Amino acid sequence: MFIKLNMKVRESKMKKILLLSLLFLFSINLATKALVRPLTIEISNGSILYDKLPVVASTPTPFTASLNFFSIEQAAPRSIEVILYHHADDGTDTPINNPINLPLFAMGAARLYQGSFNFTLPAGFTTGNIRLKFRAEGESNDNSTNFSMPIMLVPSSNMMLLTRIFNPSGGRHMITASVKEKRELLKIGWQSEGDYGLIKVVQEGSYVPLYRFYRPRADDHVFQPNNPTPPPGYDSEGIAGYVLISSGNDTKAVYKYYNSKSGDRVYTRDAGELAGVRDWQYEGIAFYVQ
Asked: What's the whole-model pTM score?
């Protein structure tokens, strides 16, 4: 009985030693490979975030890619190399940008890599999707050959709807043309107040950039056509789209009001919406939409 029990104990110890050895070898293997994984990947045009990219067949379309990667390994590489490519429906891969290096910076237990860059989708790419390849410094092969967001490409008429939405809990109104932003805000309780009209995705003709700014202290957004300089206290959030600054055929004015007490601004299709309301000042026409 003692011999059987002793053998079982020895067998159990051997299993533990074997398991610890395998774990040790596995940890060495992980450390040498310094695994890097994507954390967040966003593609935008100004402040417009996309899960589907509206692209124009006849016009090169500019976008910005913002990337965040992480590694939990102590031996994390000093940088990673990232490249976007167009994956066509027939399986053909076409690089979109030159390789971009994202440097390492440490934060807690994770090693983070961050960076953003502009790229232009060539004319003619209206189907397929955008994918991403990356590799750690010193690696010869991509460790993510088929890593796919994927962000689908969809044909666009180069127009998108500008919508006003309302936050009933905070009493705030804002306008946005970003389909993704609309969807995310509606999920957390914001309410749609209707579409104001169409603005451009890509600049052309007499359309000018509509710059978007945000003031965290007042939780307020300001939109300025053709003026990239932030008002005092506001941070730039890029380009919200392209609008007209003069009236024409089939155009509609968007008016703005300013609340001198709260610092809030409201953009409206109705010039008289807040006329005579205490603390609200009419500031005239902000821009025109179709």
From this structure: 0.61
